[in-house]
Design brief:
Shape: globular
Number of strands: 8
Strand order of the largest sheet: 1-2-3-4-5-6-7-8
Helix content: 40-55%
Structural class: alpha/beta
Distance between the termini: 26 Å
Number of helices: 15
Strand content: 5-15%
């Protein structure tokens, strides 16, 4: 016991202070999740996934597959070796992939969300987490906002759950009032609301493009369109005025679109502010107080100077947070994904912004 405590202290000392805001843990098998379900859901549940929009080559890093078998991201020791120890992470924000909000039956979606939260709390946030490096996300089913709010309340006091999460796939833009119970609960308990891609155009969720793409490359490239629509909805519906303590995190939805989208929205607001009288500031002025974006996938042009200009335009110093998307195929290494940054900006993106948001 003493040796384990000493090892934990040494590990903490050796970390460089990276906070990775998008790391995906997976159950070793479907039964791990089923074991947390009551009937009839246990019998009905056969795992989750996107269906036909899957990577046609492979969806994960091949070296992240555990040697003893099981999916990538299911072995905590291998994840620690390849991510935490390799790069000196201070914290990894875990985002399970439950795919719970694509089901027509809201009760089934609620059961999946609850089971994933129980599983994450019992494994990655407890017995796999002696040093507290793993921080979790409370999965909610947005098809049933009242039940989602109750699920947030169920886990809000847990020391290692630091945010609420859902997929970007939805039946309506997230600024609309039917989702308010979720945001009220997030604000009440001081938990950011993270949106991650995964079920756009799946199940009962609508596709953000006009019709369904033919190929994965098209679907994957256009995921950022859903994030843009949700953000404009949050801003124009006045969600941040109604819930002044509420914050959102846009995870894995791209980065470089933010500045031109805000230029367009601010220009529209000049002529159309009478339509949204509840806004007390230009839309772009709400970002620093309420919105964070994670870096992966980082659109990196041939000329790094252009990307640094985009960082300046979008206020990356206060809005952007590093993410790797481990163990997926498009993993972004902390040492390779970015051009050389000024030291102060590097510190903000790789540590400070997430530390402040999650109160770590």
């Amino acid at each position: 016991m003493e040796q384990q405590q000493e090892k934990t202290i040494e590990q903490k000392k050796s970390r460089t202070g990276i906070i990775d805001c998008d790391v995906h843990p997976y159950p070793r098998n479907t039964e791990e999740i089923r074991s947390y379900m009551s009937q009839p859901w246990r019998e009905r549940y056969n795992g989750g996934g996107r269906g036909f929009y899957g990577n046609p080559v492979h969806g994960d890093r091949l070296d992240a597959r555990p040697p003893q078998g099981g999916p990538s991201g299911s072995d905590p020791e291998l994840l620690r070796k390849q991510l935490i120890d390799e790069y000196g992470h201070a914290y990894a924000i875990l985002m399970p992939r439950a795919f719970c909000n694509l089901h027509p039956d809201p009760d089934f979606g609620n059961a999946i969300a609850a089971a994933y939260n129980d599983w994450l709390a019992d494994t990655w946030l407890s017995k796999y987490n002696p040093d507290g490096v793993f921080k979790g996300s409370i999965t909610v089913n947005t098809q049933d906002p009242q039940a989602a709010a109750r699920e947030i309340e169920r886990w809000a006091g847990h020391p290692h759950f630091v945010q609420v999460m859902t997929d970007s796939g939805a039946r309506a833009p997230f600024g609309q009032r039917q989702f308010y119970p979720i945001y009220e609960a997030c604000e009440k308990f001081g938990l950011p609301f993270a949106i991650h891609p995964g079920t756009d155009g799946m199940g009962i969720n609508v596709q953000p493009t006009p019709g369904f793409p033919s190929h994965y490359i098209e679907w994957h490239t256009c995921l950022s369109l859903g994030f843009q629509a949700h953000l404009v909805s949050f801003l124009t519906e006045g969600v941040f005025e109604r819930f002044p303590g509420f914050k959102i995190v846009l995870v894995e939805g791209g980065v470089s679109w933010l500045a031109p989208l805000m230029w367009r929205l601010d220009a529209e607001y000049k002529a159309l502010r009478y339509e949204v009288p509840w806004l007390k500031r230009r839309p772009s002025e709400y970002l620093r107080d309420h919105v964070r974006i994670t870096s992966q996938p980082l659109e990196r042009p041939d000329n790094d100077a252009y990307l640094l200009q985009i960082f300046d335009m979008m206020d990356a110093e206060h809005i952007l947070m590093f993410s790797s998307d481990y163990p997926h195929w498009d993993f972004d290494s902390p040492t390779r994904a970015f051009p050389k940054l000024p030291e102060s900006l590097h510190r903000r993106i790789f540590f400070d912004n997430a530390k402040e948001l999650y109160k770590l």
